[in-house]
Amino acid sequence: MIEEKFDAIVVGAGMAGNAAALTLAQRGLKVLQLERGEYSGSKNVQGAILYADMLEKLIPDFREDAPLERHLVEQRFWMMDDRSHTGLHYRSDDFNEEKPNRYTIIRAQFDRWFSQRVREAGATVLCETTVTELAQDAYGKVIGVRTDRADGEIHADVVVLAEGVNGLLGTRAGLRARPQPDKVALAVKEMHFLPRETIEARFNLRGDEGVVIEAAGTISRGMTGMGFIYANKECISLGIGCLVADFQRTGETPYGLLDRFKRHPSVAPLIEGSEVKEYAAHLIPEGGFNAIPQLFGDGWVVVGDAAQLNNAIHREGSNLAMTSGRIAAEAIFQVKSRKDPMTADNLSLYKKMLDESFVIKDLKKYKDMPALMHTQSQNFFLTYPELVSRAMQNFLRVDGTPKVEKERTTFKSFVKARSWSGLFGDAFRLARAWR
Amino acid sequence: MSIEPSVRVEDKLFYNRYLVDAGRAHIKVRPHTTPSPELLSMLKACPARCYELSDKGQVEITVDGCIECGTCRVICEASGDIEWSYPRGGYGVLFKFG
Ligand SMILES: Cc1cc2nc3c(=O)[nH]c(=O)nc-3n(C[C@H](O)[C@H](O)[C@H](O)COP(=O)(O)OP(=O)(O)OC[C@H]3O[C@@H](n4cnc5c(N)ncnc54)[C@H](O)[C@@H]3O)c2cc1C
Ligand code: SF4
């Protein structure tokens, strides 16, 4: 048993755990951080887009030495059917600013760097250590953790659960429910390597400029899900994810879906001739506001994906993780400075502070979206993409058909597929959930 | 309907780095005679194709290629079909990129 007692133990060295451990250590608390991977990042999977603002609040000078890939100057949204895509692109030279707003990163490398900053701030970081259980006293108060090392129990005033979406500890201790099949997505992802110049030519980029593509439509075969293609310096991150419940229901295979996405005529030319160097899979919390569990209790708080703090609509997770980790640490520090005990009452400060931040405000805004996307998945991910494609093609093909007739055909195909009330209903429901 | 080439997951797993904890499977399938629908769905849903049907019609798992995504936990833990844990610290899949 490690005899010394810590002010705080942080479980996990992902985005949330690193933000929490860093903030606690910077404020002079005695912190132990435990990570099951060989190093921070060796178990983590992401797209990945990094949002500068939330990292800057933690490490203002991060641009000096963080392993960043490309800063984003362009975002593409694709609505796909089996042979086409209808795209919305936004590109602006304003994003070539001195302090860019978004970057692509490679998580295994980024987390390693982040973890180094945590160590430098004074936290004790122990990798290759899986926490197996929370230690609780007779009243259920969390007093520390048990690990798979021979050391037995380690004690602390408070445990920060930053164990990610598939966190076992919180559920084993009965502090929150295990993730549900209709509230988490399974994403599979590959890393495609190509020469730098090839990537820049194919994506219309100069220097460290970057672009990301988000894609939805028939590629998910009627399941609630999306694909993504992100340009890094010398590789392309490419993946697709759908709700676990949908995989279960349809019997589609994740790798089959990924393969079809890769062979799509809009995607194949982008990765042609590439060398694949990794195949990864990970869950993403998709339940949104209604899936957020109890966030604090006697001797514990939960942050990041473990608390379902993930904005699936905007594909933001790491920034919510970093922010919740930082805010939890700030709340703990305030309780500690007042010399108050780490009770649920005192730690409720964390929730109060989180409610005031963009994290909860954004999730609240979209609280009805996950359910709508799931119940209407056939329409949003099959019917509409096919209709839009047909409409576009009809519009663009010049074949002597009078335009009035073309428009009539398009309208008819929409009404036939969804009926007027269906169309209005979908539009209304979407608008309401978006509001 | 075009015929799709089958995807070989084994080839994909070959790209990855693993440190296998020999003799200590982190996921176990509970002995059964007839597999539950949840367990059967894992034959398709596992991204590393760790689940297979035995000659006797039971679902078996080989965890060597597991990417620790947790999908089988989400689908099968509640029904008691499997026991799910993380590998011992340092073992399992080791992402270079993630
Ligand atoms: C395919 C994909 C694409 C994504 N794209 C984006 C994107 O572009 N932008 C974005 O902002 N977000 C994205 N996300 C979401 C983002 O990755 C997560 O929101 C974020 O990583 C959550 O951080 P976290 O610290 O809560 O969890 P994680 O980063 O998952 O970290 C959890 C850590 O805890 C460790 N751990 C777990 N259990 C234990 C234990 N018992 N003992 C010891 N250690 C333990 C794990 O090894 C891990 O290091 C994406 C996610 C996926 C899967
Ligand atoms: S955790 Fe994921 S990869 Fe591992 S066996 Fe379960 S479903 Fe397959």
TrEMBL record, chain A:
Residues 369-435 form the FixC-like C-terminal domain. The keyword Signal does not apply. The keyword DNA damage does not apply. Residues 6-188 form the FAD-binding domain. Keywords: FAD, Flavoprotein, Oxidoreductase. GO terms for molecular function: FAD binding; oxidoreductase activity. Its cofactor is FAD. Belongs to the ETF-QO/FixC family. Could be required for the formation of a functional nitrogenase Fe protein. Probably accepts electrons from FixA/FixB and reduces a quinone. This is Protein FixC. It comes from Bradyrhizobium amphicarpaeae.
UniProtKB/TrEMBL annotation, chain B:
Residues 57-87 form the 4Fe-4S ferredoxin-type domain. One of its GO terms (molecular function) is iron-sulfur cluster binding. Pfam families: Fer4_ETF_QO. Keywords: Electron transport, Iron, Iron-sulfur, Metal-binding, Nitrogen fixation, Transport. InterPro entries: 4Fe4S_Fe-S-bd (IPR017896), 4Fe4S_Fe_S_CS (IPR017900), ETF-QO/FixX_C (IPR007859), Fd_FixX (IPR012206). It comes from the Bacteria. The keyword Electron transport applies. PROSITE patterns: 4FE4S_FER_1 (PS00198), 4FE4S_FER_2 (PS51379). SUPFAM superfamilies: 4Fe-4S ferredoxins. Could be a 3Fe-4S cluster-containing protein. To ferredoxins from P.putida and C.tartarivorum, ferredoxin I from A.vinelandii, ferredoxin II from D.desulfuricans. This is Ferredoxin-like protein.
